[in-house]
Amino acid sequence: MAIRAERRIKYAMMLPVLIFILALAIFPLIFSILVSLSQWTPGTGGLRFVGLKNFLDMIRDPRFARSFSLSFIYVGSAVGIELGLGMLLAMILQKDVTGKNFFRVTYMLPMLLSPVAISYVWKMILDYNRGPLNYFLGWLGIAPVEWLGKGGTALLSLILVDVWQWTPFMIFTILAAFESISEELYEAALVDGASHAHVFFHITLPVAFPVIITVVLLRVIDAFKVFDTVYVLTGGGPGTATETLNFYIYLKGFRAFNLGYGTAMSWVQLIIISVMFTYLTRFLHRMGVLR
Amino acid sequence: MPGTYFKVRGSWQKVGIYAVLLFWLFFTLFPIYYNVVTSFKEHETVYAPRPKFFPFIDFKPSLLGWIHLLGRTAPGEPEYQVMKILGNRAVYLRNSVVVALVSSLITVTLGVMAGYALTRFVYRRWSNENIAFFILSQRMFPPVALAMPFFILFNTLGLLDNILSLIIVYSVMNLPLVTWIVKEFFSDLPRELEEAAMVDGCSRFGALFSVVIPLAIPGIAVSFLFAFIFAWNEFLVALTLTFENAKTLPLQMAGLTTLRGPQYWDIAASSLVIIIPPLLVTIFANRYIIRGLSLGAVKE
Fold it and tell me: Mean pLDDT over residues B246-262, rounded?
């Protein structure tokens, strides 16, 4: 029967994917709950159940709280700056500028590049003695800055690399949202005597708002995952000044081989971020800015 | 007729706009340019009192980094040093290519199945939206959260330092993105086309392979390229699951500085090799990047 065959195809197409995900993403995740409740000893490879010890350790671990707040600072500043710059450049690119396509393609170049490779490039640029950045700053009469050697500037350097790589994402998502608004709407508003600022705040921005919120959330999720640039540029240092949460988890899990503790921390991270997002999207739904 | 709203008004506004655009152009391109230039430097140029920017004009280009990249030594250089720095680069390159290629083929195959099923069938028990969300939610997990259970699992299975483990992990990691992109492209295709083919006696599979997939080739190709690039760039999982035999290029690069001070010419040549594939993808597939990275939330 044709309907039977159709049914069979329907499940034959979907089940392999679901089984694949269940076996290779959900199972490891459930297994990791077990790991987070255990002590794993390398060598013997045995897991010893220790109950909630790893979670209680976290409360007493100042480095955990510190790296968590550092991650928030990193994500907040990087995504904030990217949003501001993205908005500005999207507004500019919406206008009739010459060479729009050229700017478009070149601005997009950083996005897909390997974070490890570009971190090395930025390491050359930020070099204290021979780096071009300090050289350019010298033209402006600014004394050389030890970018990666001091806590504050090291964090700033990481944010700079994130901004370099991901501002284009903001620019072009926001630009696409702007461009979805029909030109007649703008013309009509202008004919009715609205100022450009008025049009921007009462037409452009409200229409683009859901897209902006969505891409900010996507960016926040990804920025929290930051690891490669920290590993290459600062190694979490100087001291622990740029030790973001994922980097600290890595150190605990794979350098100290305390996999139980590392897994427990990544679960706390996952839960806090998911709860935050659930409430945030619910709040935005209630505000009516997200559908 | 072009609208007046988008006209650049006044010469001051024009100056401001182009100043911002050119500044951002410089900011974007400078690191890439500096990377290219540095790969043609050698010891003296790198350690010169001020940074050099223009080959032939303010420094004499050297092929040192590229000679090392090919695993050779420059005349008068002790061989063991170079070999120690570079390690087994040919193996790393092969690992990178094989892992990226195989994992993205698996991901795209599964992604096409899921994308097609989600757009053409109705799953009453679980509902299509829930399945789609379930697949997408995999993207929320920080890779480090998956790396630890995978480490223990692959340790038990004896698959540590084996490219098979990387292929498996990358196939799972890229699946949400690929499924989402393919699903977006499939839902844009009119159903009538395949229905017509099926009325003409094509089976469901026949219609899929002769009508749907050929029409969705741009989307499938783009999702393949994305999966390839993300596997090519991936660092954290490779760092934790490999030690030597299964190392990929980013890892080989990350090891470069620890051996002997910053050898910027070697680093620059290595990083250029890693950067070239994604640069090409950006240039040729830039129409799809935003749509892909925003998971279809933004259509251009």
Answer: 75
Q: Which pLDDT score is estimated for A108?
A: 93
Asked whether B197 and B211 are in contact (CB, 8 A), the reply is: yes
pLDDT of residue B87: 60
Residues of chain B contacting residue A211, judged by C-beta atoms under 8 Å apart: 297-298
State how far the Cα of A157 lies from the Cα of A230, in Å rounded to an integer.
Answer: 10
Cross-chain residue pair B30–A270, CB shorter than 8 Å: no
- ∠ CA A32-A36-A41 to the nearest 5 degrees? 100
Q: Which of A248 and A195 is assigned the larger pLDDT?
A: A248
Domains within chain A, CATH numbers bracketed: 64-287 (1.10.3720.10)
What type of residue sits at position B300?
A: E
Q: Distance between CA atoms of B215 and B189, rounded to whole angstroms?
A: 8
Q: Which residue of A has its CA nearest to B284?
A: A105
Indicate if the alpha-carbon torsion angle B48, B49, B52, B58 is positive or negative.
Answer: negative
Alpha carbon B180 to chain centroid, angstroms:
17
Chain B residues with beta carbon closer than 8 angstroms to that of A117: 250, 253, 270-272, 274-275
Mean pLDDT comparison of A119-133, B85-99, B180-194, highest-scoring range: A119-133
Would the CB atoms of B53 and A132 count as touching at under 8 Å?
yes
How far is A80 from A84, CA to CA, in rounded Å?
Answer: 6
pLDDT at position A280: 84
ipTM given for this complex: 0.89
Q: Which helix (H) or strand (E) holds A47?
A: strand A47-49
What DSSP element (H or E) covers A48?
Answer: strand A47-49
- Closest partner CB to B172 (pick from A25, A103, A110): A25
Under DSSP, the state recorded for B209 is I
Give the 3-state secondary structure of A190-229.
HHCCCCHHHHHHHHHHHHHHHHHHHHHHHHHHHHHCCCHH
CA angle A242, A243, A249 (to 5 degrees): 160
Considering only alpha carbons, which residue of chain A is nearest residue B17?
A92
CA distance B190 to B208: 13
* Binary contact (B278, A14; C-beta < 8 A): no
Number of Cβ pairs < 8 A linking chain A and chain B:
299
CA distance B246 to chain A (A): 18
Helix (H, G, I), strand (E, B) or coil at B20: helix
- Show the domains of chain B with their CATH numbers: 11-86 (no CATH), 89-254 (1.10.3720.10)
Q: Which of A168, A160, A169 is nearest to A229 (CA)?
A: A160
Phi-psi region of B52 (alpha: psi -120 to 50; beta: other; left: phi over 0): beta
Q: Which residue has the higher pLDDT, B204 or B283?
A: B283
